[in-house]
Amino acid sequence: MSSNKTTDTIPTESKILDVQGIVKRATELNDFGHLLEHVPYAKFIGMKVERFGDELIFKLPAKDDNIGNPILPAIHGGVIAGFMEMSAIVQLMVFMQTAKVPKVVDFSIDYLRAGLHKDSFAECRITRQGRRVANVNINCWQTNRKQLIATARAHFLID
Amino acid sequence: MKVNPDFFPLTQMAQRFVDQLAQCRRLGLTVLEASEHHVLIELPYSTELIGYPDTGVIHGGVITTLMDTACGSAVVSAIFQKYQSLEISPTLDLRVDYMKPAQPHKSVYGFAECYKLSSNIAFTRAIAYQDSIDDPIAHAVGSFMRISPEMVGDAFRQALMGEAVPPLGETNELK
Q1: I want to staple B54 with a disulfide (CB 3.0 to 4.6 A). Which of A17, A34, A127, B33 is the partner?
Q2: What is the residue extent of each domain of chain A?
Q3: Full-model pTM
């Protein structure tokens, strides 16, 4: 089963990601999309990020491959969760200056409305930051910021 | 390990359900087993799914998608077996605990159970693992809302029963 490995560019363990360096550069250039370019999954779902003053707003543009329910159609719940989780990771890297990419410990999401086939947005709030664990709250909406499509909370290991 | 599909007669129906979801086709999810009690889905490794570039470990969001899909398919299978009807249940909430990172270049398996089906809500739990289910990567608990079978369109019903040819929202032309 494991013999059918593809020979495309496989990152090796020796390539250590300089998280603080990347964040510093992104802050200087005021281009936080730069952060996401290092993460293949962020590209896979097509997410973007923009900074407005002290706030980061994450965007998940409508994309056919992200559809789950074909009847509505609606974005796959897992994609919304992945988008929100990635948003929280970037939020922590930028505002907490973590040395490594934070590792998710648990992720709990409540779906409030169907995420329709259009652009989605997310914002994060770091509820508590301890020495080893951070608690982050993430909200996701589409046309109206007050009508959330999902809300989530997550714990991350940071070091 | 190939399991005789006759042993888990809902496998094909669950695979057709998963194939209706564009994101799942993109991830290449395969239903290995499905019964009224459980669903087992394989997620192949791909470098596109990496969330931690320095180790090649896939993103937690992919595991969440696998868990959501596995739990959702378990609900569809359980309802199909119990009521001989097709319902699509939207996820109400999902909690995933990550015990350890998934090893790169290996498939992840998602095993989901619908352990209680009430008139309005379906309760599910799932485990993601690689080598052994006793050494899990993640554990999930999710609840799903039940909606009436009339909400399922004819085209979708036919697709799940294996009667329609192209997946919904897709024309015959290939990209």
Answers
A1: A17
A2: 19-157
A3: 0.89
